[in-house]
Amino acid sequence: MQDRLLIEASDLAAGYDGTPAISGITFSLRSGQRLALLGSNGGGKTTLLRAVLGELRVFGGTLRVSAACGTVPQTERSRLDYPVSALDVATMGALAALPWWRRPGRREREAAGRALERVGLGSLAGETFGRLSGGQRQRVLIARALVRDAGVLLLDEPFSGLDRPSGERLEALIGELTSEGRGVVIATHDLEQARACDLVLCIAGRQIACGPPDEVLADVGVLEATYGGAIVELPGGGGRAILPPHHHHH
Ligand SMILES: Nc1ncnc2c1ncn2[C@@H]1O[C@H](COP(=O)(O)OP(=O)(O)O)[C@@H](O)[C@H]1O
Ligand SMILES: [Mg+2]
Q1: Among 63, 124, 212, 246, which residue has the fewest nearby CB atoms (within 10 Å)?
Q2: pLDDT in tens, 95-113
């Protein structure tokens, strides 16, 4: 069970309308593994996550996803004006497993309540989703994935905009999820974060590298190809860092 293959991509190309936005993507994710997806803005991180979710057209190569996926999208892309509670959102995780004519009922709401407890939000179950903090909303979406019993979690820049305690809390939760055999993919700008993962995949439209962090991150050529000019040498031998991303909206 620990070694179950969850995602397998081979020379995958995927994108929008007529053109692939990403290509040459080859990786596998196994049960219990954490994969960091590194790339500058527009590099194709979100595109790859959406391809895994089956939302985009595959132009070439193969992509096999053999587990239910739960997703936590980039915060700025969530609708916050819907009058739904945290419990409602977590309960939606049950929809995929229900026959089409059934609405979630008491059993599903109880499962959602337990999942919210588990992510530390039991007391906020009745709060309006859009009024929660960014970190709390992410944990509600993780609860939704738990209700779904997702074998894979896809987190799109989950640490951007989180304060330190929220980040540490999320980190601990991710550790729990992988130790129970789930696979986690984290799109991130944080090299330290990536260092703590089992695998790092660097993407700049095409795949630049994929492998264990001590190999991939030690290669300056890989980082330069991934980030272009945005990578800087810190003064006083402080190592390398990435300039803060400029956020743009689509
Ligand atoms: N809905 C869309 N339709 C067409 N092109 C898109 C869409 N979303 C993203 N793209 C393009 O795909 C490329 C990769 O974007 P994205 O996956 O969002 O990168 P990242 O998440 O790494 O910032 C960019 O060139 C972007 O403009
Ligand atoms: Mg993105």
Answers
A1: 246
A2: 988 888 888 899 999 999 9
pTM: 0.90
User: For position 35, which CATH number holds?
Assistant: 3.40.50.300
Instruction: State how many domains the chain has.
Output: 1
User: Ligand 2 centroid to 49 CA: how many Å?
Assistant: 9
Q: Is residue 172 part of a domain?
A: no
Q: Which residues surround ligand 2, an ion (CB under 5 A)?
A: 45-46
Ligand 1, residues 46, 156, 206: which to mutate, most atoms within 8 A of Cβ? 46
> What CA–CA distance (Å, rounded) separates 207 from 226?
9
The CB density around residue 59, as the number of other CB atoms within 10 Å, is 16
Q: Which domain holds residue 56?
A: 1-67+188-250
Strand ranges (E), the chain: 5-16, 19-30, 34-38, 57-65, 69-72, 152-156, 183-188, 199-204, 206-211, 231-233, 240-242
